[in-house]
Amino acid sequence: SAVISQKPSRDICQRGTSLTIQCQVDSQVTMMFWYRQQPGQSLTLIATANQGSEATYESGFVIDKFPISRPNLTFSTLTVSNMSPEDSSIYLCSVDRGSSYNEQFFGPGTRLTVL
Amino acid sequence: GQSLEQPSEVTAVEGAIVQINCTYQTSGFYGLSWYQQHDGGAPTFLSYNGLDGLEETGRFSSFLSRSDSYGYLLLQELQMKDSASYFCAFDNYGQNFVFGPGTRLSVLP
Questions:
Q1: Is A105 within 8 Å of chain B by CB?
Q2: Mind giving me the DSSP string for B41-64?
Q3: Is residue B66 exposed (0-12), middle (13-18) or buried (19+ Cβ within 10 Å)?
Q4: pLDDT tens per residue, range B21-80
Q5: Which DSSP symbol is given to B21?
């Protein structure tokens, strides 16, 4: 298994500002994933981040709004830009166990509230 | 398109057996995964079916039938700590990873 930490654990931000969420893994991993989850709802994949290449974004998510960095095999950041109240959500990073998506380990999440 | 369907809520008593169903629609996928998430917690991996049939992991078992586009998670000897949300999910041939809407399981004493 992998141990994943996220910073910050929660934040309250003003409309129009940006927040960068950090995800740190205790071992080198190929793929890192960023999800969004509204309380009581399912998880929606935002993007997949591979080290050394640009992130791959899912339909409905764009790089200008959610820029992602993946500088090495243990770390990634997700920025939520120009925030609005609709961005209030829990943001989770995860890593895969091997070469497939099927078993993922999730970080504790970042609870974001935008006022 | 690609989607998964699950019952929104299931209730059972301690010691009982409960089955959470998952039906899906996709043009192709590697297999079906199951995740558990307690309130305020992160999802944790439970089980994966890459092939049709039953996979058993302790009190939890998962089943997949590709011909029926159907799978289920079976929880035996229910305990209060099993009260959580359960998600089925699939990997759409590496294109993306899709979670179902989740089933909230309440275990009653």
A1: yes
A2: S--EEEEEESSSEEEEETTEEEEE
A3: middle
A4: 999 998 888 889 999 999 999 999 999 999 999 999 899 999 999 999 999 999 999 999
A5: E
Instruction: Decide if B109 contacts B48 (C-beta within 8 A).
Output: no
Task: Identify the residue whose tokens are 């070469």.
Answer: A99
Distance from the A109 Cα atom to the nearest Cα atom in chain B, whole angstroms: 7
Closest Cβ–Cβ partner in B97, B101, B102 for A101: B97
Q: Are B98 and B46 in contact (CB under 8 A)?
A: no
Q: Return the bridge partners of B72, or none.
A: B21, B63
Statement: residue B85 has pLDDT above 70? yes
Interface residue ranges in chain B relative to chain A, Cβ cutoff 8 Å: 30-31, 33, 35, 41-45, 48, 50, 87, 91, 94, 96-102
User: Residue B95 pLDDT > 70, yes or no?
Assistant: no
